[in-house]
Design a protein that fits this description.
The protein is an alpha+beta fold and 241 residues long. It has 10 helices and 7 strands. The strands form 2 sheets. A 4-stranded antiparallel sheet has the order 6-1-4-7, with no helix packed on it. A 3-stranded antiparallel sheet has the order 3-2-5, with no helix packed on it. The radius of gyration is 20 Å and the shape is globular.
Length: 241
């Protein structure tokens, strides 16, 4: 979690650029590619924490239940205005001071302060994001978890429909209603995102990238990548330089 309180610049996360300003808060998840260009007067906070530690502490809830951690549905950025920061900043300051001492129950306090930040984020999210509480949301969350588990080996929409005990037609309807994408588009977008991430590693050949993503046919992978991005994998890698 990164909160900027002063300065400017831009932050690129998974190949999408976001402008930085005071109040910009970013939630980065494992596997995401990011870098930034920051002004000399930049100030803010950076906290690192794990899903496992959080979920182990709070037995009655999970960090992924917060809507802003559901990556298929949301952007990794949230911007707090000056009035909203008044309620959020004290928790960040308390986390800094607590992390620098050795008082008893230190870890307990840190995790609870983090959760207070999550609650403030959730209140803002629910008040600003066009997000209808829908019975389909659970299904989308279920689909996201399945995609993360199987996208490298399973690219057939019917596979995910069967795993969720739904007809393919019904699953497509859910995806269109909530995300305005078909299940095929969701699978393809997830595969292409991972391809871009892997292509940033210069030590991997393009053939190795294709194999890592479950493509036995190198040519098919190249055609799919170009269809989705407008560039071949080689051209995309050169553009990163």
């Amino acid at each position: 979690m990164v909160l900027f309180t002063k300065g400017s610049g831009w932050h690129e996360i998974d190949f999408t650029k976001y402008h930085i300003k005071p109040g910009s808060l970013f939630m980065l998840q494992p596997g995401q590619i990011h870098h930034w260009e920051l002004s000399a007067d930049i100030e803010g906070y950076i906290f690192f924490y794990s899903q496992e530690a959080y979920n182990l502490y709070f037995a009655h809830k999970k960090i992924e239940d917060y809507p802003f951690y559901q990556s298929v549905m949301n952007q990794p950025e949230m911007v707090f205005n000056a009035e909203e920061l008044i309620y959020v900043l004290p928790y960040f300051d308390l986390m800094i001071s607590e992390s620098q001492n050795s008082n008893p129950k230190k870890e307990d306090k840190l995790v609870n302060l983090l959760d207070c930040i999550h609650i403030e984020m959730s209140r803002k999210y629910l008040s600003t994001v066009t997000h209808i509480s829908h019975s389909y949301n659970y299904k989308i969350h279920q689909l996201e978890k399945l995609l993360e588990q199987y996208y490298q080996t399973e690219k057939s929409p019917s596979f995910y429909a069967e795993k969720m005990n739904l007809s393919l037609k019904h699953l497509n309807r859910i995806c269109k209603d909530i995300l305005n994408q078909t299940i095929t588009e969701l699978i393809t977008n997830r595969v292409i995102l991972e391809a871009k991430r892997l292509l940033t590693n210069a030590s991997k050949t393009i053939n190795q990238v294709a194999e890592n993503l479950g493509f036995e046919n190198y040519s098919y992978f190249t055609r799919l990548f170009k269809k989705q991005t407008g560039l071949t994998p080689s051209e995309f890698r050169k553009s990163l330089n």
